[in-house]
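Minutes, project check-in
Item: structure for the 178-residue chain
Input as provided by the requester:
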Amino acid sequence: MAHVTHLDHRYAHFSLNWEAAIGAAVSAGVVFVALEMLMAPLFLGMSPWAPVRMIAAIVLGQDVLAPPTTFSVGILPAALIVDLVLSIIYGIIVGLLLHRWIAGAPHPAAVLVAAFGAVFGLSLYLINFYGFTGVFPWFADARNVLSAFAHVVYGLVLALSYRGIAIRSLGKTPLKSV
C-alpha cells in the first residue's frame, strides 16, 4: 500500500480537474469559432464561413476552401468536431499546467491566470500559423492580427474558465483579482 501512495505522490503534479478542463475547453472553443466568424466579415470583408472552412479543411482537405465560402451542412459539423477535439486537448494541457497552482491555497488571482491564458493563446497562434503551415499551407493565408487576437481571447477564456470551474469544484471562493 505504501508503494501506491509513493506513486500517487510522485505523479501528483499530473493531477487534472477533468470537469474544469473539458468545460473550459468547450466554452473557449465555441467563443473562438464565434469570434472568428464575427471578425471575418467585419474586418476582412470575408464570408463568416471562411474560418469554418479553414478549420474543416484539416480533416476534409483543401477542396473545402474553394469558393463559394458559404454555409455547408457537411462542413460545419466537421469544423466543430475538429475545433472541439483540439480545444479539449488544449484544455487538458492548460489543466495540467494550472491544476497544482489553482488547487493550492491561496488561489492565483484572475489577472495572473489571464496573463497565462493570453500567452498560451498567442503560443497556439504561433504554432498553428507558423509551425503547421507545412502540413496545412492554407494557414499561412490567415496570418494576421485578427487571428492572433482570436487565439489570445481563446487562451484567456480557456484559462479563466478552467480557474473558475476548478475553484468552484473545490468548494472554495476565489480571491478577488487585482
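Outcome recorded: Confidence is low (pLDDT under 50) at residues 1-12.
No further action items on this chain.
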